[in-house]
Each structure stands twice: as C-alpha cells, then as structure tokens.
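Per-residue structure
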Amino acid sequence: MRVLIVDDEAYVHDYVQNIISQKLINMAVSGHAYDGNEAFHQVMEDRPDIIMTDMKMPFSDGLTFMEKLKNEGFPGKIIVLSGYSDFSYSRPAFLMNAFDYILKPIDEMKIAEVLTSAHHKLLEEKRISKENKAWMENAKSLIQEEFLSKILYERYTDVNELYVRADQLNIYLPESNYFTIIIKLFDQQEEKEFFNDNVKKLLSSIIPIHQTILFTNRLSINEYVILVNSKETLSIGSILKGLSFLKTNGNMKAGGSTLKKKLIDLPDSYQEAKHNMNQLTLHPDYRIEPLEQGNSEIKNMWDDLLRITDCFVKSKSKHYASILEDTFNTVFQKYDNTRIKEWEHYVNLFKRKLDRLGQENAEYQNHIRHFESLMLELQWREASAFLKAALKVLTEMFTFHKTNEELITLIKDYTEKNYDTVNLQVIADKFYVSKNYFCSLFKERTGENFGEFLTRIKLERAKIFLKESELKNYEIAELVGYRDQRYFSQVFRKYTGYQPSLYRSQLKEK
C-alpha cells in the first residue's frame, strides 16, 4: 500500500515515515506534501492508497483538501492528524469520509494500528469489489445468453424491436449475410469458460472474432451456438473443418446453416443447423464428417443385439445371456461412429426389451434411472455403464439357477437361515425374481404359500427357544422376526393351539 503524508511540520513526516519503514512491511511512503493544494496535485498524479493529513495547514487546510477528494471520489482511506480532541473539530473530518482520527502528539503504536486497519479494510473492499464485478459480468452474460437463446426459437414480427433489445444488452446482431453453427458436447467434463476460450481462439484463426457471436444455448443441454456475420464469401465448411481440430474432454458434433439474408430468419437458420448437425458422426479422434448413408456395419451389429435380446427374453438361458453380454460390449464400443439419432433410436429399442424383464426389480430400475438421467445430460459413456449394469442384473436374475426346482431349494435354504429378516421383497431382490412370479412358482412346486412356509419356519424355531431357553416371550418374538409380542402370541396359538407361556409350561410338566 502507498501512503501520502500531508502536514506542515517536517518532524511529523520523518516520524511517520520511520514508523512505516520499520514496522509496516506492506506499506511505503509514496510522497510528502506540506499543504492541501500541494497534496491534492500529488493525489491526482500518484493515486496513493492511504492519505495521512493534518487539519491545520497554511494556504489550504485539511478539511478543504478532504472536500476536494470527496468531490473527486477518492477511493482510498484518509487518516486525520490533529491536536484538537474536541468533537467539534473531528466531526467535520468524518463528514468528509475520514477513516480515523489520531490526536497529536502522535503515538507510534496508534499510527501502526490505524494504518494496519486501513490496509486490511482496503484489501477487503478490493476483494468485494472484484467479486461484485465478476458477479455483474456473470449476470450480464447470463441475461445476454438468455436473450440470444430465446430468439433462436421465437420469430419476431418487428425486427427493429429485436435490434433495440440487443443494443440495450450490448449485443451486436448481424444485419445480413450470416449463418448459424451449432456445437453439441457429449460426455463433457471441462468447464464452460475453458471450452469457450478454446472455441474463441480457434475461431479467431479462421474469421475475425468481431464477426462472430458465441454463446451457450440456455434452452438446450451442452449446446453452443455461433452466429457468423459473413460480409465476405466464407465457406461454412472451412469453419467446421477448423472445429475438427478443437480438443475437448468429451465427444462433439457440429452443424451449420446456409447463408441467410435477414435476421428475422434466425429460427429457420438455427433449425437448419440443428438438422444438419444430426447428420454428422462422432469419432473418438474428434473428427467431424458428414454421413450421407447410415453405417451398414453398425446397423447390422445393432440388429444382431436386438435379435439376441429377444432370444434371451424368451429363453432366459445362460447361453443367450453370455452371447448378449458379449454383443452388448462390442456394439457399445462402436457407438462413437453412429449418428446420434440412430444411436438413440437403437438404445431405446434395446432398453424397452430389457424393461419387459426388469420392471419389477428394484436394482434394475435404479440403474435405469441413472441411465436415463445421464442420457438427458448427454453423458453417454457414463449412461452406457449404467445400462450395462442393468443388463447384468437381468442376466444374473434369470441364470442364477438352472431349474425352478433348484431355485425353490435355494430360497428355502436361505429362508431357514435368515427367517428373522426374510420377506417377499428380500427374496425378490436377492434371487432376481418378481414377487408375483415367485409366489406362483413356490405354490406350484411346494403345495403351500411362501407366507405359510415362512410362518412355519419361524414358529418351529420359536418352539425350540421355548423348550431350550429361559428367554421371555417378547425376546423370542423378536428373535424370530415379530416386532409385536401380542401378534406373535396370536400366530403361535393358531399354529400350536396354545399360548407361548402355556406351551412352555406343558413342556416342563412332561
């Protein structure tokens, strides 16, 4: 921080300068003045951060000097030095925005304390000012982008209204001869500002940057729009070719419109660019190329995947499960070379087939929810991972057991070991079967309902506890999975014909 000392007594200058040089390493004396006029000229030339000024000086006193500074909007801090302690002398100084008031004779510690306080206050104000400025810039940018995004979709009948609103936002829209470019990012990880800077640098090497408007489309996910004001003949192909060298942390696609004459046609220009964008392929090496015909190899692979999925859905066999997982991995390694619309079409067909098997499975549905959310965010790689996990749930669900008899045996064994926590939902999630299917199968194979089987297991275990332990009835009830002792007693009586206490008494008599 730079400090200006203003006083008509030389010893004050020497005294304050020694304190600053010896005790305040973040400060330095920027100048000396001996009256208000001289001080004001130095402030205008040197712009110090802090001013220490006497009140009583020849030619121009401290108050006059401070009034001039206030009128000029001096942003620094003013510390007043005075030999008068009466408030009638200090009050005018504070009305002129004085930061603090130090009485003479000057105390060394007081000088250091006040200067340090002024220093910290200035740093805090600069930080807040910087943050406010950044916030204002962000707010301005957001308002501009919302306006630009809106006019991509709404057709203005009065083009003059469009230009007036744009001028108010410091946006200079093209008057004629422009075209629209759309860039869409997928699996994006980098910050928007970093991407914007890269695009601007690349565009400046192709076309003068003042002829372009780059903004984020606030009405579409991960989409950037460039309006190019092309007064000279400029091929959109050259820009798209330039964009092919743009490196990002995700996949990218781009498309452009033909040259337009009137700004009122901007919605048409945008839709044309969007249509053309959907005809471009995505490549792992970030090349952008038009694709006139669908990729027959990719189409055949997807057709194979869908056929194998149908076979698995019908047979639920390990054979088809293994083939399906291998084919899935192969196809999803190739999606970068597929048109976006084509890829979305096939993925949705595939998911709908899987939904027929997994609609009642909680784990499957959880993976699918993540998949659908990431698809909306255009995070394709992560979305594919969740779809793969959902597929894995289904292949394990229907190949976990070889036969229905083996499934029933596994569930009965599991129930006998975990009778206190088992219920239908636990069985459905653990063994990858729907509740309705399992209940029907269990009844068919065993002749009793699963609920009856579970109750029998619990109560037979309760009988053992009553016979071999001194546990109280409510303790036994909890051990076998009943949280309500009265309900346990009712079920036990219905099963054995006795209340638990009477059952235990009869066992002792025997």
